[in-house]
Amino acid sequence: MVETVRAAIYARISRDVTGEGLGVERQLADCRKIAADRGWLVAEEYVDNDISAFAGKRRPSYERMLEDIAAGQRDAVIVYNTDRLTRRPIELEQFTGICEVAGVRQLVAVTGDIDLGNDDGMFMARVLAAVAAKESGRKSERLKRKARENAEAGKPNGGIRPFGYEKDQITVVESEAAVIRQLAERYLAGESMGSLTRWIQDQGIPTVAGAAWHTSTVRSVLRNPRIAGLRAHNGVIVGPAMWPAIISPEQHRQLLAAFARKVNSGRRTPRSYLLSGMLRCGNCGNKLFSAVRGDTRRYVCQSGPDHGGCGRLTIVAGPVEEWIAEAVLIRLDSPAMADALAGRAAADDRFSALSAELQSDQAQLKELAEEWAAKGISMLEWKAAREPIEARIYNTDRQLGQLSGNSTLSGLVGNGDGLRANWESLNLSRQVAIIGAVLDYATITPAKTRGREFDPFRIVPTWSR
Length: 465
Description:
By secondary structure, this protein is α/β, with parallel strands linked by helices.
Protein backbone atom coordinates (compact mmCIF):
# COMPACT_ATOMS: atom_id res chain seq x y z
CA MET A 1 0.00 0.00 0.00
CA VAL A 2 1.42 3.35 -1.04
CA GLU A 3 1.55 5.84 1.79
CA THR A 4 -0.04 9.22 1.24
CA VAL A 5 2.48 12.06 1.00
CA ARG A 6 1.24 15.00 3.04
CA ALA A 7 2.57 18.07 1.25
CA ALA A 8 2.91 21.59 2.55
CA ILE A 9 2.57 24.34 -0.05
CA TYR A 10 4.30 27.60 0.84
CA ALA A 11 3.72 30.82 -1.09
CA ARG A 12 5.03 34.31 -0.48
CA ILE A 13 5.17 37.60 -2.31
CA SER A 14 7.23 40.44 -0.83
CA ARG A 15 5.27 43.31 -2.35
CA ASP A 16 1.64 43.18 -3.43
CA VAL A 17 1.25 46.50 -5.23
CA THR A 18 -2.39 45.94 -6.17
CA GLY A 19 -3.36 44.61 -2.77
CA GLU A 20 -5.20 41.74 -4.45
CA GLY A 21 -2.72 38.93 -3.72
CA LEU A 22 -2.58 37.88 -7.39
CA GLY A 23 1.11 36.94 -7.19
CA VAL A 24 0.41 34.50 -4.39
CA GLU A 25 -2.54 32.98 -6.25
CA ARG A 26 -0.35 32.29 -9.29
CA GLN A 27 2.22 30.56 -7.08
CA LEU A 28 -0.45 28.44 -5.39
CA ALA A 29 -1.99 27.35 -8.69
CA ASP A 30 1.36 26.08 -10.02
CA CYS A 31 2.16 24.34 -6.72
CA ARG A 32 -1.25 22.63 -6.61
CA LYS A 33 -0.64 21.26 -10.13
CA ILE A 34 2.66 19.70 -9.01
CA ALA A 35 0.95 18.03 -6.06
CA ALA A 36 -1.84 16.70 -8.32
CA ASP A 37 0.67 15.39 -10.90
CA ARG A 38 2.53 13.47 -8.17
CA GLY A 39 -0.56 12.24 -6.42
CA TRP A 40 0.30 14.05 -3.20
CA LEU A 41 -2.23 15.31 -0.71
CA VAL A 42 -2.06 19.04 -0.07
CA ALA A 43 -2.24 19.00 3.72
CA GLU A 44 -2.19 22.79 4.05
CA GLU A 45 -1.30 25.92 2.15
CA TYR A 46 0.84 28.41 4.06
CA VAL A 47 0.72 31.95 2.71
CA ASP A 48 2.65 35.08 3.72
CA ASN A 49 1.58 37.97 1.53
CA ASP A 50 3.49 41.26 1.30
CA ILE A 51 6.28 40.05 3.64
CA SER A 52 9.94 40.06 2.61
CA ALA A 53 12.03 36.95 3.30
CA PHE A 54 15.23 39.00 3.11
CA ALA A 55 14.41 41.79 5.55
CA GLY A 56 14.18 39.41 8.50
CA LYS A 57 10.56 40.23 9.32
CA ARG A 58 8.47 37.60 11.03
CA ARG A 59 6.54 35.32 8.67
CA PRO A 60 3.74 33.78 10.73
CA SER A 61 2.67 31.18 8.15
CA TYR A 62 6.27 30.13 7.48
CA GLU A 63 6.88 29.68 11.21
CA ARG A 64 3.70 27.61 11.54
CA MET A 65 4.82 25.40 8.65
CA LEU A 66 8.14 24.73 10.40
CA GLU A 67 6.24 23.76 13.55
CA ASP A 68 4.09 21.30 11.58
CA ILE A 69 7.16 19.80 9.88
CA ALA A 70 8.92 19.40 13.22
CA ALA A 71 5.79 17.69 14.60
CA GLY A 72 5.96 15.07 11.81
CA GLN A 73 2.76 16.26 10.13
CA ARG A 74 4.30 17.04 6.72
CA ASP A 75 6.24 14.80 4.31
CA ALA A 76 7.23 17.26 1.55
CA VAL A 77 7.33 20.96 0.81
CA ILE A 78 6.26 22.55 -2.46
CA VAL A 79 7.22 26.12 -3.43
CA TYR A 80 7.20 28.10 -6.65
CA ASN A 81 10.91 28.84 -6.34
CA THR A 82 13.41 28.35 -3.52
CA ASP A 83 13.74 32.12 -3.10
CA ARG A 84 10.06 32.15 -2.12
CA LEU A 85 11.00 29.91 0.80
CA THR A 86 13.94 32.02 1.98
CA ARG A 87 16.56 34.46 0.72
CA ARG A 88 18.74 34.18 3.82
CA PRO A 89 21.37 31.42 4.05
CA ILE A 90 21.00 31.24 7.84
CA GLU A 91 17.26 30.59 7.46
CA LEU A 92 17.96 27.86 4.91
CA GLU A 93 20.20 26.07 7.43
CA GLN A 94 17.42 26.28 10.03
CA PHE A 95 14.88 24.93 7.52
CA THR A 96 17.03 22.01 6.37
CA GLY A 97 17.94 21.17 9.96
CA ILE A 98 14.26 20.85 10.93
CA CYS A 99 13.53 18.82 7.78
CA GLU A 100 16.44 16.45 8.48
CA VAL A 101 15.23 15.69 12.00
CA ALA A 102 11.64 15.19 10.77
CA GLY A 103 12.72 12.98 7.84
CA VAL A 104 11.46 15.40 5.16
CA ARG A 105 13.72 15.06 2.10
CA GLN A 106 11.66 16.49 -0.73
CA LEU A 107 11.74 20.21 -1.45
CA VAL A 108 9.90 20.57 -4.73
CA ALA A 109 9.92 23.79 -6.72
CA VAL A 110 8.11 24.61 -9.94
CA THR A 111 11.54 25.44 -11.35
CA GLY A 112 13.22 22.23 -10.14
CA ASP A 113 13.44 19.64 -7.33
CA ILE A 114 16.01 19.56 -4.55
CA ASP A 115 16.75 16.46 -2.50
CA LEU A 116 17.67 17.67 0.97
CA GLY A 117 18.89 14.22 1.89
CA ASN A 118 22.19 14.29 -0.04
CA ASP A 119 25.21 16.55 -0.36
CA ASP A 120 24.49 17.60 -3.95
CA GLY A 121 20.97 18.70 -3.04
CA MET A 122 22.18 20.67 -0.02
CA PHE A 123 24.95 22.27 -2.08
CA MET A 124 22.44 23.38 -4.72
CA ALA A 125 20.06 24.72 -2.08
CA ARG A 126 22.84 26.76 -0.45
CA VAL A 127 24.00 28.16 -3.80
CA LEU A 128 20.44 29.21 -4.67
CA ALA A 129 19.98 30.82 -1.24
CA ALA A 130 23.26 32.73 -1.56
CA VAL A 131 22.33 33.97 -5.04
CA ALA A 132 18.89 35.02 -3.81
CA ALA A 133 20.42 36.86 -0.83
CA LYS A 134 22.83 38.74 -3.07
CA GLU A 135 20.07 39.72 -5.49
CA SER A 136 17.86 40.86 -2.62
CA GLY A 137 20.71 42.98 -1.26
CA ARG A 138 21.23 44.60 -4.65
CA LYS A 139 17.51 45.19 -5.05
CA SER A 140 17.31 46.70 -1.58
CA GLU A 141 20.17 49.10 -2.31
CA ARG A 142 18.60 50.08 -5.64
CA LEU A 143 15.31 50.83 -3.91
CA LYS A 144 17.03 52.84 -1.16
CA ARG A 145 19.03 54.83 -3.71
CA LYS A 146 15.89 55.51 -5.75
CA ALA A 147 14.04 56.62 -2.59
CA ARG A 148 16.86 59.07 -1.77
CA GLU A 149 16.84 60.45 -5.31
CA ASN A 150 13.06 60.94 -5.22
CA ALA A 151 13.32 62.68 -1.85
CA GLU A 152 16.06 65.03 -2.99
CA ALA A 153 13.98 65.86 -6.07
CA GLY A 154 11.02 66.67 -3.83
CA LYS A 155 8.87 63.85 -5.23
CA PRO A 156 6.26 62.00 -3.16
CA ASN A 157 7.13 58.54 -1.88
CA GLY A 158 3.96 56.67 -2.83
CA GLY A 159 1.72 54.71 -0.52
CA ILE A 160 -1.61 55.77 0.97
CA ARG A 161 -2.60 59.35 0.25
CA PRO A 162 -1.83 61.84 3.06
CA PHE A 163 -4.62 63.84 4.66
CA GLY A 164 -4.88 67.16 2.82
CA TYR A 165 -3.80 65.83 -0.60
CA GLU A 166 -5.28 63.79 -3.44
CA LYS A 167 -4.09 60.27 -4.37
CA ASP A 168 -1.34 61.78 -6.50
CA GLN A 169 0.00 63.24 -3.18
CA ILE A 170 0.51 66.58 -4.94
CA THR A 171 -2.92 68.13 -5.51
CA VAL A 172 -4.32 69.84 -2.41
CA VAL A 173 -7.76 68.80 -1.12
CA GLU A 174 -8.90 72.25 -0.07
CA SER A 175 -11.58 71.09 2.37
CA GLU A 176 -9.01 68.99 4.26
CA ALA A 177 -6.37 71.71 3.97
CA ALA A 178 -8.75 74.12 5.74
CA VAL A 179 -9.06 71.59 8.57
CA ILE A 180 -5.27 71.31 8.84
CA ARG A 181 -4.86 75.09 8.98
CA GLN A 182 -7.48 75.35 11.71
CA LEU A 183 -5.88 72.51 13.71
CA ALA A 184 -2.48 74.19 13.45
CA GLU A 185 -3.77 77.61 14.50
CA ARG A 186 -5.73 76.23 17.42
CA TYR A 187 -2.87 74.07 18.68
CA LEU A 188 -0.50 77.03 18.51
CA ALA A 189 -3.17 78.97 20.37
CA GLY A 190 -2.78 76.56 23.25
CA GLU A 191 -5.68 74.18 22.66
CA SER A 192 -4.98 70.62 23.77
CA MET A 193 -4.54 67.69 21.40
CA GLY A 194 -7.44 65.91 23.08
CA SER A 195 -9.71 68.90 22.52
CA LEU A 196 -8.76 69.12 18.84
CA THR A 197 -9.34 65.39 18.38
CA ARG A 198 -12.81 65.62 19.90
CA TRP A 199 -13.57 68.60 17.66
CA ILE A 200 -12.55 66.85 14.43
CA GLN A 201 -14.56 63.78 15.45
CA ASP A 202 -17.63 65.88 16.24
CA GLN A 203 -17.36 67.55 12.82
CA GLY A 204 -17.68 64.13 11.17
CA ILE A 205 -14.48 64.63 9.17
CA PRO A 206 -13.18 61.20 8.06
CA THR A 207 -9.56 60.11 8.14
CA VAL A 208 -7.95 58.96 4.91
CA ALA A 209 -8.56 55.32 5.87
CA GLY A 210 -12.05 56.03 7.19
CA ALA A 211 -11.03 55.07 10.74
CA ALA A 212 -11.66 57.06 13.91
CA TRP A 213 -9.42 59.99 14.77
CA HIS A 214 -7.05 59.61 17.72
CA THR A 215 -4.73 62.15 19.32
CA SER A 216 -1.79 60.29 17.76
CA THR A 217 -3.38 60.66 14.30
CA VAL A 218 -3.93 64.40 14.70
CA ARG A 219 -0.42 64.84 16.11
CA SER A 220 1.05 62.93 13.15
CA VAL A 221 -0.75 65.19 10.67
CA LEU A 222 0.49 68.36 12.39
CA ARG A 223 4.08 67.12 12.77
CA ASN A 224 4.38 66.03 9.15
CA PRO A 225 6.70 68.44 7.27
CA ARG A 226 4.88 67.72 4.01
CA ILE A 227 2.01 70.07 5.03
CA ALA A 228 4.61 72.86 4.99
CA GLY A 229 5.76 71.90 1.48
CA LEU A 230 8.91 70.19 2.77
CA ARG A 231 10.27 66.77 1.72
CA ALA A 232 11.66 64.51 4.43
CA HIS A 233 13.62 61.28 4.08
CA ASN A 234 14.19 58.96 7.03
CA GLY A 235 12.99 61.67 9.38
CA VAL A 236 15.29 64.38 8.00
CA ILE A 237 14.11 67.29 5.82
CA VAL A 238 16.12 67.22 2.60
CA GLY A 239 14.58 70.17 0.79
CA PRO A 240 11.43 71.73 -0.68
CA ALA A 241 8.74 69.43 -2.07
CA MET A 242 7.10 69.59 -5.47
CA TRP A 243 3.60 69.84 -3.91
CA PRO A 244 2.05 73.06 -2.55
CA ALA A 245 2.33 73.87 1.14
CA ILE A 246 -0.82 73.99 3.28
CA ILE A 247 0.84 75.90 6.15
CA SER A 248 4.00 77.99 6.11
CA PRO A 249 7.43 76.59 7.08
CA GLU A 250 7.38 79.12 9.92
CA GLN A 251 4.15 77.62 11.28
CA HIS A 252 5.71 74.16 10.97
CA ARG A 253 8.66 75.25 13.12
CA GLN A 254 6.26 76.78 15.64
CA LEU A 255 4.33 73.51 15.82
CA LEU A 256 7.48 71.48 16.44
CA ALA A 257 8.53 73.93 19.15
CA ALA A 258 5.08 73.70 20.76
CA PHE A 259 5.25 69.90 20.77
CA ALA A 260 8.73 70.06 22.28
CA ARG A 261 7.55 72.39 25.03
CA LYS A 262 4.68 70.06 25.88
CA VAL A 263 7.11 67.13 26.16
CA ASN A 264 9.49 69.14 28.36
CA SER A 265 6.72 70.32 30.67
CA GLY A 266 5.28 66.83 30.99
CA ARG A 267 1.83 68.43 31.31
CA ARG A 268 -0.84 65.93 30.34
CA THR A 269 -3.68 66.30 32.87
CA PRO A 270 -6.61 68.16 31.27
CA ARG A 271 -7.93 71.32 32.94
CA SER A 272 -11.23 71.29 34.76
CA TYR A 273 -11.21 74.98 35.83
CA LEU A 274 -11.05 77.93 33.44
CA LEU A 275 -8.55 80.00 35.47
CA SER A 276 -6.25 77.31 36.89
CA GLY A 277 -2.80 78.82 37.37
CA MET A 278 -3.96 82.35 36.45
CA LEU A 279 -5.09 83.63 39.87
CA ARG A 280 -2.91 84.95 42.73
CA CYS A 281 -3.62 85.44 46.41
CA GLY A 282 -3.84 89.10 47.43
CA ASN A 283 -2.46 88.22 50.88
CA CYS A 284 0.67 86.22 50.09
CA GLY A 285 1.01 86.30 46.28
CA ASN A 286 0.79 82.51 46.00
CA LYS A 287 -1.18 80.79 43.23
CA LEU A 288 -4.78 79.89 43.95
CA PHE A 289 -5.81 76.27 43.50
CA SER A 290 -9.14 74.87 42.37
CA ALA A 291 -11.22 73.07 44.98
CA VAL A 292 -14.79 71.91 45.53
CA ARG A 293 -16.56 72.55 48.81
CA GLY A 294 -19.94 70.90 48.87
CA ASP A 295 -21.54 71.70 45.52
CA THR A 296 -19.58 74.92 44.99
CA ARG A 297 -16.46 75.26 42.87
CA ARG A 298 -13.89 77.61 44.37
CA TYR A 299 -10.38 78.98 43.97
CA VAL A 300 -8.50 78.87 47.28
CA CYS A 301 -5.09 79.76 48.67
CA GLN A 302 -3.81 76.52 50.16
CA SER A 303 -1.25 76.27 52.94
CA GLY A 304 1.03 73.36 53.74
CA PRO A 305 4.36 72.13 52.37
CA ASP A 306 2.96 71.20 48.95
CA HIS A 307 1.42 74.61 48.26
CA GLY A 308 3.05 77.17 50.53
CA GLY A 309 0.19 79.64 50.63
CA CYS A 310 -1.32 81.47 53.56
CA GLY A 311 -4.55 79.49 53.45
CA ARG A 312 -6.62 82.59 54.25
CA LEU A 313 -8.30 83.46 50.95
CA THR A 314 -11.06 81.91 48.84
CA ILE A 315 -13.40 83.00 46.05
CA VAL A 316 -16.30 81.26 44.29
CA ALA A 317 -15.22 80.11 40.82
CA GLY A 318 -18.29 80.81 38.68
CA PRO A 319 -18.59 84.59 39.07
CA VAL A 320 -14.86 85.29 38.82
CA GLU A 321 -14.62 83.16 35.66
CA GLU A 322 -17.54 85.02 34.07
CA TRP A 323 -16.04 88.41 35.03
CA ILE A 324 -12.57 87.57 33.64
CA ALA A 325 -14.02 86.14 30.42
CA GLU A 326 -16.09 89.27 29.83
CA ALA A 327 -13.12 91.51 30.59
CA VAL A 328 -11.01 89.61 28.06
CA LEU A 329 -13.69 89.93 25.36
CA ILE A 330 -13.94 93.68 25.99
CA ARG A 331 -10.16 94.05 25.85
CA LEU A 332 -10.04 92.26 22.49
CA ASP A 333 -11.91 95.23 21.01
CA SER A 334 -9.75 97.86 22.70
CA PRO A 335 -7.14 100.07 20.96
CA ALA A 336 -4.60 98.81 23.49
CA MET A 337 -4.87 95.31 22.06
CA ALA A 338 -4.31 96.46 18.49
CA ASP A 339 -1.25 98.41 19.63
CA ALA A 340 0.08 95.39 21.51
CA LEU A 341 -0.01 93.28 18.36
CA ALA A 342 1.52 95.91 16.10
CA GLY A 343 4.93 94.29 16.47
CA ARG A 344 3.71 90.80 15.60
CA ALA A 345 5.99 90.35 12.58
CA ALA A 346 9.05 91.05 14.70
CA ALA A 347 7.72 88.65 17.33
CA ASP A 348 7.31 85.92 14.70
CA ASP A 349 10.92 86.39 13.58
CA ARG A 350 12.01 86.12 17.21
CA PHE A 351 9.90 82.97 17.60
CA SER A 352 11.66 81.39 14.61
CA ALA A 353 15.10 82.21 16.01
CA LEU A 354 14.19 80.88 19.47
CA SER A 355 12.74 77.69 17.96
CA ALA A 356 16.03 77.06 16.16
CA GLU A 357 17.94 77.62 19.41
CA LEU A 358 15.65 75.22 21.27
CA GLN A 359 16.08 72.45 18.68
CA SER A 360 19.85 72.93 18.70
CA ASP A 361 20.04 72.68 22.50
CA GLN A 362 17.78 69.63 22.57
CA ALA A 363 19.97 67.92 19.96
CA GLN A 364 23.09 68.77 21.99
CA LEU A 365 21.49 67.36 25.14
CA LYS A 366 20.68 64.12 23.32
CA GLU A 367 24.21 63.91 21.92
CA LEU A 368 25.61 64.43 25.42
CA ALA A 369 23.45 61.60 26.80
CA GLU A 370 24.59 59.29 24.01
CA GLU A 371 28.23 60.14 24.74
CA TRP A 372 27.73 59.26 28.42
CA ALA A 373 25.91 56.02 27.48
CA ALA A 374 28.88 55.07 25.29
CA LYS A 375 31.19 55.74 28.29
CA GLY A 376 32.93 58.52 26.44
CA ILE A 377 32.51 60.86 29.41
CA SER A 378 32.08 60.35 33.14
CA MET A 379 28.95 61.01 35.17
CA LEU A 380 30.50 64.17 36.64
CA GLU A 381 31.38 65.47 33.18
CA TRP A 382 27.86 64.67 31.95
CA LYS A 383 26.22 66.55 34.84
CA ALA A 384 28.53 69.54 34.45
CA ALA A 385 27.82 69.83 30.73
CA ARG A 386 24.10 69.12 31.08
CA GLU A 387 23.21 71.90 33.54
CA PRO A 388 23.95 74.94 31.33
CA ILE A 389 22.16 73.30 28.37
CA GLU A 390 19.06 72.60 30.46
CA ALA A 391 19.15 76.17 31.77
CA ARG A 392 19.20 77.50 28.19
CA ILE A 393 16.31 75.19 27.23
CA TYR A 394 14.27 76.41 30.21
CA ASN A 395 14.84 80.09 29.40
CA THR A 396 14.16 79.60 25.69
CA ASP A 397 11.01 77.69 26.46
CA ARG A 398 9.72 80.52 28.65
CA GLN A 399 10.36 83.08 25.93
CA LEU A 400 8.61 80.91 23.34
CA GLY A 401 5.63 80.56 25.63
CA GLN A 402 5.34 84.34 25.92
CA LEU A 403 5.54 84.82 22.16
CA SER A 404 3.15 82.01 21.19
CA GLY A 405 0.13 83.94 22.43
CA ASN A 406 0.16 86.03 19.24
CA SER A 407 -1.12 83.02 17.27
CA THR A 408 -4.01 82.58 19.68
CA LEU A 409 -5.43 86.00 18.89
CA SER A 410 -5.33 85.61 15.11
CA GLY A 411 -8.71 86.80 13.81
CA LEU A 412 -10.00 87.62 17.31
CA VAL A 413 -8.75 91.17 17.87
CA GLY A 414 -11.61 93.55 17.14
CA ASN A 415 -14.11 90.68 17.12
CA GLY A 416 -15.00 90.54 20.81
CA ASP A 417 -18.73 90.84 20.17
CA GLY A 418 -18.77 87.93 17.72
CA LEU A 419 -16.69 85.81 20.06
CA ARG A 420 -19.02 86.63 22.95
CA ALA A 421 -21.98 85.18 21.06
CA ASN A 422 -20.14 81.87 20.59
CA TRP A 423 -18.22 81.79 23.89
CA GLU A 424 -20.33 79.10 25.54
CA SER A 425 -19.96 76.82 22.51
CA LEU A 426 -16.14 76.87 22.79
CA ASN A 427 -14.60 74.00 24.72
CA LEU A 428 -12.66 74.72 27.91
CA SER A 429 -9.26 74.25 26.27
CA ARG A 430 -10.01 76.91 23.65
CA GLN A 431 -11.41 79.35 26.24
CA VAL A 432 -8.29 78.90 28.40
CA ALA A 433 -6.04 79.57 25.39
CA ILE A 434 -7.82 82.84 24.54
CA ILE A 435 -7.79 84.12 28.12
CA GLY A 436 -4.17 83.09 28.61
CA ALA A 437 -3.12 85.05 25.52
CA VAL A 438 -4.54 88.28 26.95
CA LEU A 439 -4.28 87.87 30.72
CA ASP A 440 -0.97 87.36 32.50
CA TYR A 441 -2.65 86.74 35.85
CA ALA A 442 -5.29 88.24 38.14
CA THR A 443 -4.85 89.02 41.83
CA ILE A 444 -7.77 88.26 44.14
CA THR A 445 -7.79 90.62 47.11
CA PRO A 446 -9.25 89.67 50.50
CA ALA A 447 -12.99 90.10 50.98
CA LYS A 448 -13.92 93.24 52.94
CA THR A 449 -17.01 91.65 54.42
CA ARG A 450 -18.11 88.12 55.16
CA GLY A 451 -21.10 88.39 52.87
CA ARG A 452 -21.70 85.88 50.11
CA GLU A 453 -22.23 88.48 47.36
CA PHE A 454 -19.67 88.58 44.57
CA ASP A 455 -17.48 91.70 44.68
CA PRO A 456 -15.84 92.37 41.27
CA PHE A 457 -13.51 94.94 42.87
CA ARG A 458 -11.64 92.03 44.47
CA ILE A 459 -10.28 91.12 40.99
CA VAL A 460 -7.16 93.00 39.85
CA PRO A 461 -6.13 91.80 36.38
CA THR A 462 -2.59 92.10 35.03
CA TRP A 463 -2.79 92.07 31.23
CA SER A 464 -0.07 90.52 29.09
CA ARG A 465 -1.40 92.50 26.12
